[in-house]
Amino acid sequence: MKIREERKELEKVLNNSPEKIDKNILQENESIPGLQVEPIMDIDFIEIKSKCESEAKLMILNSVKFILTEDMIEGNEYLQNKIMVDSLSLSGMIYQLRINEIMQKALIEQVNLGMINPRMWEVFGQLSKIIGELNKQLLQTVEAIQSTYKVIKDNIKEQRTEALSPSTSSQTGMLTAGDGSVVTRGTKELINNVKKLKKQNGNNNGNNNYLDDAELIPNIHVEDIHIETNT
Predict the structure, then answer these.
(1) How many Cβ atoms are within 10 Å of 88's Cβ, its own excluded?
(2) How many whole angstroms separate alpha carbon 125 and alpha carbon 109?
(3) 64, exposed or middle or buried, with CB in 10 Å at 0-12, 13-18, 19+?
(4) Domain edges within the chain
(5) Cα torsion angle, 160, 162, 164, 165, sign
(6) Which of 3, 51, 94, 166 could make a disulfide contact with 183, Cβ separation 3.0–4.6 Å?
(7) What are the start-end ranges of the H helices in the chain?
(8) Tell me, what's the pLDDT at 168?
């Protein structure tokens, strides 16, 4: 066909075409069934993420309750915030693990349908390696989190011990704890504290004479003893 003839054919097609083309055109929000892609698996990723968050929070709470007592956890804002942050971090790792397991399962199903490709075996090996590393990292993260809560437990005990640490009373000279209880370290210290109290009482009563060094036996004069006789 010569160039002149081709030109005439094109002009004929253009002259016969409508001025406005609105037929056989895909309209907005219209889909062609033949072009729709069917999902391989019915997966709700939002539900999977929610389950991972619940699983992570449960793991953290079980670890915390195994290490710390209820009175240590209750009312401690630092612990509450730390549990929330640790749960968020752990849920992300669990989510990545579950997603890789789903992709590995999809790949196996494709192979079962006969869609075998050398690249699939390579991808399957990579996914298996990633899943193994995620499992290892998950265990290490849980152990690290447990170690931090053990340190927190020691710090709480230390703070409570400091709050109840003994102090010397300026009036009695006795060691008293933070709750007001008396702390004694031995018999000698107890005797010394009794002597101090007896001296104070003796100074107040004007009687400070004892026969023993421990000042436990008072020195009573004979003229102070009155003997009554019946005649």
Answers:
(1) 13
(2) 15
(3) buried
(4) 39-163, 175-224
(5) positive
(6) 166
(7) 3-16, 45-67, 70-73, 77-112, 118-163, 187-205
(8) 52
